[in-house]
Design a protein that fits this description.
Blueprint: E1 3-8, H1 13-19, E2 25-29, H2 39-55, E3 61-65, H3 74-81, E4 88-91, H4 96-114, E5 122-126, H5 131-135, E6 143-144, H6 148-154, H7 168-184, E7 188-190, H8 199-212, E8 216-219, H9 225-232, H10 236-251, E9 258-260, E10 263-265, H11 267-281
Parallel strand pairs: 1-2, 1-8, 2-3, 3-4, 4-5, 5-6, 6-7, 7-8
Antiparallel strand pairs: 9-10
Helix pairs in contact: 2-3, 8-9, 10-11
Bound molecules: coenzyme A (COA) and magnesium ion.
Length: about 290
């Protein structure tokens, strides 16, 4: 999934717009974009929308963002959402793999009741939204990261410096997400850019995210989708280069290190080339979302 567009679950027309936005996934939000007194209406609206949207022939992946484990709201969220059988839930404020195990158990019970296959609804965790979560980053399953909630918990007044660069603690959160995703062999998904009118800034941070190993990014506005899709779609030059690297290794069987155009290439280069090509043939890398077993 290159682009994942958030839409509030009570968004009305926005839900249909999100479906037509070109995003690889639509995230129907029951968490921060829904005020407490509208949660139960929003659950109903999310379930109705998901049930219909799942039937569409050509559709984006459908993900429901539920409320975090500490809120006491997640059980009612899952009761409403699971019968609609979305592709995945997004779990905010995840504190390590323990939270994922807990939510996996909640899903299993409801999948059985709804007649769904065990493990059919995947979990995408937001891994860095609390200070505690940062210390548990290595225990993850599959993930993305967030700065806004973490800054609220830290009592910070900003997430970026005057030049628009992420401050240290959020760079740490971002790095924890990248390394945690690699350790769990799941897709690393970059966080949202909240300034949705500044597409030049979006392109810059998305380029940086791709450079660093993210393979997708969340969006909050349809205007962001095309930029994100473009950045995460391998270019013909990148594909040609990857094919050349693979061909060079195939031409030298038994060799771990070879020179191509004056540059040493070894196993990591070969792996990178293979992963890039895999992204051109599959809608998403294998195992980008997974359940525990
Ligand atoms: N999904 C689908 N459609 C969206 C959208 C979204 N995330 N964000 C905006 N649109 C639609 C608007 O409804 C509007 O449609 P219209 O022209 O038919 O009226 C059009 O795109 C242009 O919207 P615009 O005026 O530029 O933005 P806005 O001020 O209406 O909305 C936000 C701004 C931030 C409120 C909106 O983008 C949004 O709701 N984003 C998602 C928020 C969210 O889910 N946050 C939680 C995760 S961090
Ligand atoms: Mg949040």
């Amino acid at each position: 999934m290159r682009s994942l567009l958030f839409v509030p679950a009570d968004g009305g027309r926005k839900l249909d717009k999100a479906m037509a936005s070109g995003a690889d996934a639509v995230i129907v939000d029951l968490e921060d974009s829904i005020v407490p007194e509208r949660k139960s209406d929003a659950r109903r609206s999310a379930a109705d929308f998901l049930r219909d949207a799942m039937q569409e022939h050509r559709r984006p992946r459908l993900i429901a963002r539920v409320n975090g484990l500490a809120t006491g709201l997640i059980d009612a969220d899952l009761d409403a959402i699971v019968p609609a059988a979305p592709d995945a839930i997004m779990l905010p404020k995840t504190e390590g793999g323990g939270h994922v195990v807990h939510v996996d158990a909640k899903l299993l019970a409801r999948e059985a009741t709804a007649g769904l296959e065990a493990g059919s609804i995947k979990i995408v965790a937001i891994a860095t939204e609390t200070a505690t979560a940062l210390f548990l980053g290595g225990t993850f399953l599959g993930l993305t990261w967030g700065a806004e909630d973490l800054s609220a918990e830290l009592g910070a007044q900003a997430t970026h410096d005057a030049d628009g660069r992420l401050l240290d603690v959020y760079r740490l959160a971002r790095a924890v997400c990248l390394a945690g995703a690699a350790a769990a062999q799941v897709q690393a998904i970059d966080t949202v850019a909240v300034d949705f009118r500044d597409l030049a800034a979006l392109r810059r941070v998305t380029d940086e995210a791709r450079r660093d190993g993210f393979t997708g990014k969340m969006a909050i506005h349809p205007a962001q989708v095309a930029v994100i899709n473009e950045v995460f779609t391998p270019t013909p030059e990148q594909i040609a280069e990857a094919r050349a690297v693979i061909a060079a290794f195939e031409a030298s069987p038994g060799k771990g290190t070879i020179g191509i155009d004056g540059v040493m290439h070894d196993r990591p280069h070969l792996e990178r080339a293979k992963r890039l090509l895999a992204r051109t043939t599959e809608p998403e890398p294998a195992g980008s979302m997974q359940r525990l077993r």
